[in-house]
Amino acid sequence: MLNRLWVGFFWFAGLAACYQWLVLDNTAIFTHLVQAVFDMAKLSAEIGLGLIGVLCFWMGLFRLAEKSGLVDKLAWLLSPLLTRLMPGVPANDPAYGSMTMNIAANMLGLDNAATPLGLQAMKDLQRHNSTPDTATNAQILFLVINTSSVTLLPVTIFMYRAQQGAANPTDVFIPIILATTASTLVGIACVCLVQKIKLFQPVVLAYLVAICLLVSLIVWGFSGLSSIEMQEKSSLWANLILFATILVFITTAYFRKVAVYDTFIDGAKSGFDTAVSLIPYLVAMLVAIGVLRASGGLDMIVDAIGALVGLLGGDTSFTQALPTALMKPFSGSGARAMMLDAMATYGPDSFTGRLVSIVQGSTETTFYVLAVYFGVVGIKHGRHAIVCGLLADATGIVAAIGLGYWFFG
Q1: pTM of the entire predicted model
Q2: When comparing pLDDT for 276 and 355, which is higher?
């Protein structure tokens, strides 16, 4: 699947570039394509090297948590659910602890902590992989959970809206929560359907009800706050929990007679190796995405969708947000740039300005996550991971558009 997809990116970009050249007389298009290759290759190396410090620190902390027994303690939070969704992973396995920590960090919007913990979880799951170059069912489910986005505190989106002059930067909070919840639930359901895992089990249903209640509680607790209060409290609690976690890891390891400094250094060394090993996978995926974007292929798709909706007599207002939506699965920075451009063009309080904000918070960068998470353990065959991840993305985008019309249309 990955082989065909990667080749398809370049061929589609090539055909789009030929259209630009032969039909639109854009003679500079191939210059843009080649420049995109070099720019994205450079960016890939910069991202990989930029991850070194973060990965070293969090891999070092995670090693402390392992040695002190904290990982085993954390596993009980989600292990009853995950053991039923991932029957191939033994009970009480360290993977449950690392996955729990990753999911919790994602929910709090702590990207810098979530990625290293997710990579550790993927390594833990790889220990149960009898075919190392092919993704297991558990790895696919874990990846889809990450690509569907489970962030409950989208602080960065509020910040961008405030910078663009939105009257109420947090008025998209509830739609974002609903859209990302829909994306995550559909992603999990798709994987379970393919893997023939029963969702209608008492324990699974109990967790789903608990998650819905948690989402409702967060929405209720934050919806009554002003935009400034929401940003302050979101940032305060997220960073307070993050720093408290660091202190708990270090202090627990110290009182349990772990050689804290030496153990941290040992774990940090693995973080360095992990960051460097990711670069080839990032180069492969980001260059393909850069070429696709530079060719104008995504713009052609947006125009075609707009024309089709118009022919059917539908409202085409949402098409102004489609560049952000279509870029989101490929590039987080690209989608962010398109979101800011849409806000600057149409205004942050316009229908388009609000819709791009909801889209940005509804799902994750599937291909980037796939390249990083599979790349760290050398997986080349993702099986149904891409299809399920993109279905979750599509659900998040469709839900975002529907909610945009419901709340602001």
Answers
A1: 0.76
A2: 355
